[in-house]
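Quarterly update from the structural biology core.
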Amino acid sequence: MVGDSISDVKAFDTACVSMCMGSGPALAKQSADFVLETGEFESCMRTLMYGRNIYTNIRRFLQF
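Predicted structure, tokenized:
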């Protein structure tokens, strides 16, 4: 879940992984798992890509 407003707080709580933009209100930042300092969507996608890569590498290591 990616969002930056107070109306997204309930969705942040129910999502497995939630990201809030740095320009969002304090309540949204507190309930999100990750807070992105920049408001660019590209940085959000880059974060997801790195997270999936780390997850895949850990999974491969455990299978080895």
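The beta strands are 2-3, 19-21, 34-36.
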